Write the structure tokens for this entry.
Amino acid sequence: MSNNLVGADKSTDFSKWYTNLITRAELIDYYDVSGCYILLPDAYSIWEEIKQYIDAKLKGMGVKNVYFPLFVSEKALHVEKDHIEGFEPEVAWVTRYGKKDLKKPIAIRPTSETIIYPYFAKRIKSITDLPMKFNQWTNVVRWEFTPLKIKSLVAEMKTLQAQMKELKKAGGSADDRRALAGRISERIDSWRL
């Protein structure tokens, strides 16, 4: 689309240009909760193609898909307090159901480490349980209205909820885990979708 059709100049206001582009192309629409948007059929189709392509590559590397809960207990969240320190102010909390208050508030998953790492600790009993390589296609919620950064582009989609891929590995040395992450990053960088 030309800048005239989009209503903004990509080189001077990328954020406005990108937002206008995806809304005018009817890839997304906004919802009545600030920070939330609807992926329309064409956008969701693109997401499915990307997901299927990456999923096949990860499975070829021995990574298995899992799904962990949306809700996180306050206790589990604070066990990983060093990990969540930077975004703790953005954690969304559920404090009631219907008209009743919960005895203990629960967080809506801001990241999955707080759920996956305790599972690894519970599940891994010996070296024979390793390596454990998991991928989760999931949503996370952070009450932040900060730009969503996409590699070298700065696409400022101010969003509360994001669909994402989370890859976790237990087993091997820290160097082994970094090497796997590096191989995956290199492959993702080289994939032409």
